[in-house]
Amino acid sequence: MDLKDKVCVVTGAAQGLGRSFVEILLKNGSKVALIDVNKSLGNELKSTLDQEYGRDRTEFYLADVTSEEDFKGVLEKIVKTFGRIDILCNNAGIINEKHWEKTIAINLGGVVRGTYLALEHMKKENGGNGGVIVNVSSMAGLGPLPMAPIYTATKHGVVGFSRAMAAVSKLANYGVRINILCPWFVKTSLLSSMSSEEHIGSFFPLKGIAETMMQNRGCLEADVVAKAFLVLVKDESKNGDVLMIDPDEAVFVSFPERAKDFSTTPVSLE
Ligand SMILES: NC(=O)C1=CN([C@@H]2O[C@H](COP(=O)(O)OP(=O)(O)OC[C@H]3O[C@@H](n4cnc5c(N)ncnc54)[C@H](O)[C@@H]3O)[C@@H](O)[C@H]2O)C=CC1
Ligand SMILES: CC/C=C\CC(=O)/C=C/C=C\C=C\C=C\[C@@H](O)[C@@H](O)C/C=C\CCC(=O)O
């Protein structure tokens, strides 16, 4: 997929991984709409990007991905300003085990909402041009992260939802590919949430598990994850694919075609 002048939308774009996705898209010639709840960081980033790429290449939109009204309204504004949507990255996410309903609403609800709303503009049957959606999960979407069961559940949910939607899109000929990114720990502000009782709640005594995991295997830089993101965007053979990025390598994860084909152990029901 050639990214020149493509119209992209990134949620949680003001910092961290979102910012890296914005930058790699801009470097590849795309225009990018930045969505975030952090107004000051969003405006600050927009000014920085204006200097490097020109004012017409980006726009910042203040919106909360948990609000149907916000998200729908902003996508409509983006289509009015830029003419269409080719690429969406549902990246906004938090870790908060204490206020777990909020974590589910942002990490899973925001991805579901973003995917459904953007498809209305992107799918070919509605006059859209097709394109690609990348949903940001985590390696915690593939296996448990012991001090973060709700975070783990939301990220497993992102994998399941996105794989199912990729199958829908293929069967219904939406012309939209839907892929999933599963990174290991990345050096962003999200990591500081793990050292706070306010975020981990009653699982706080287990925070050493994550610290040990990072001491043993290190922590990714956001720009490495952005390169993996670009693979999912550009490779037109990828739909419903899960790209895991750990400190040693980036690999596509294979799932059996049918649940029946998982590695299994027979159980006697006698
Ligand atoms: N940092 C890490 O170790 C890893 C992060 N991830 C995932 O990557 C994604 C991005 O995380 P980071 O860049 O690390 O976090 P971050 O905290 O650096 O950035 C997240 C951004 O999302 C925005 N945001 C939060 N709630 C929002 C909402 N309701 N609506 C709109 N924007 C909202 C924040 O204002 C912030 O700018 C998340 O989904 C996270 O779960 C996945 C694997 C590892
Ligand atoms: C709590 C959220 C913090 C950061 C964001 C994030 O998504 C980070 C994820 C990083 C790695 C996740 C790895 C998950 C691995 C699973 O396969 C588990 O099964 C591993 C379980 C225990 C590991 C214990 C150990 O290795 O010592």
Automatic annotation (TrEMBL):
The keyword Lipid metabolism applies. The keyword Lyase does not apply. CDD domains: ADH_SDR_c_like. It catalyses: resolvin D1 + NAD(+) = 17-oxoresolvin D1 + NADH + H(+); (11R)-hydroxy-(5Z,8Z,12E,14Z)-eicosatetraenoate + NAD(+) = 11-oxo-(5Z,8Z,12E,14Z)-eicosatetraenoate + NADH + H(+); prostaglandin E2 + NAD(+) = 15-oxoprostaglandin E2 + NADH + H(+); lipoxin A4 + NAD(+) = 15-oxo-(5S,6R)-dihydroxy-(7E,9E,11Z,13E)-eicosatetraenoate + NADH + H(+). Its EC number is 1.1.1.141, 1.1.1.232. One of its GO terms (biological process) is prostaglandin metabolic process. GO terms for cellular component: cytoplasm. InterPro entries: NAD(P)-bd_dom_sf, Sc_DH/Rdtase_CS, SDR_fam. GO terms for molecular function: 15-hydroxyicosatetraenoate dehydrogenase activity; 15-hydroxyprostaglandin dehydrogenase (NAD+) activity. Keywords: Fatty acid metabolism, Lipid metabolism, Oxidoreductase, Prostaglandin metabolism. Belongs to the short-chain dehydrogenases/reductases (SDR) family. This is 15-hydroxyprostaglandin dehydrogenase [NAD(+)]. The gene is LOC107757877.
